Amino acid sequence: MSYPPVPAPDQNRSAGLATQGARAVTAAVLVLAVTAGMWVLELVDAVTDHSLDRYGIQPRDVGDLPDIFSAPFLHGGFDHLAGNTVPFVVLGFLAAWRGIAKFLWMSLIVIVVGGLGVWFTSSANTLGSSILIFGFFGYLIGRGVFERRLPDILVAVAVVAIYGTLIFGVLPSDPRISWQGHLFGLVGGVLAAWALRRRAAA
Questions:
Q1: What is the pLDDT of residues 110-143, one digit of tens each?
Q2: 116 φψ region: left (φ > 0), alpha (ψ -120 to 50), beta (else)
Q3: Half-sphere exposure (CA, 13 Å, Cβ side) for 171?
Q4: In the chain, count of helices (H) and strands (E)?
Q5: How far apart are CA 99 and CA 22, in angstroms?
Q6: pLDDT, tens digit (0-9, with 9 covering 90-100), for 56-65
């Protein structure tokens, strides 16, 4: 009886690097495409006298509930968007690198949890990708805690080292900033990390 040849260690290593490289490219393209889309939306908003701002989250307006899905991609001006762009790209890329399907599920959980939290507790029209940014932050840290795998732990440590001060954004300090979006986005990210964690084999 003949058996297929066992791949050499170098072949396995090369295949693994190729897979990681493909995932990195896919993650970068997706996150950059979403970022470009947000800039296009803000340009449209600017030339139409801020007509898109009405698609932010209006607290406790039942008819406005669908806007929890549009609010994270809209901003209150180019300064607002510019301030969110770098952390969105960096944290979004790190969150998407491990798999696009899981990233999309995580983003949906963050949008729903963060959006509903804002809808129930805020007092003003809310929009901005901070909900997702804080969700990515919470997800990456939660993944390091729940997965307990060295790569995830290292990413979590790096994220805390670079963006750890984000945690202060969940405090009600500036009335112009939606601390509710930050807080519930963070909660959504941690919940997503727990819900999407790898289950140990029985």
A1: 999 999 999 999 988 999 999 999 999 999 999 9
A2: alpha
A3: 5
A4: 6, 0
A5: 10
A6: 999 999 998 9
pLDDT at 176: 79
Domains of the chain and CATH, by start: 9-195 (1.20.1540.10)
Confidence of residue 173 (pLDDT cuts 50, 70, 90): confident
Q: Which of 70, 78, 84 is nearest to 42 (CA)?
A: 78
- Core vs surface per residue 64-75: b (16+ CB within 10 A) or e: beebbebbbbbb
Rounded distance, CA 25 to CA 15, Å? Answer: 15
CA distance 73 to 186: 17
Instruction: Measure the CA–CA gap between 14 and 49, rounded to whole angstroms.
Output: 53
CA–CA gap between residue 170 and residue 184 (Å, rounded): 8
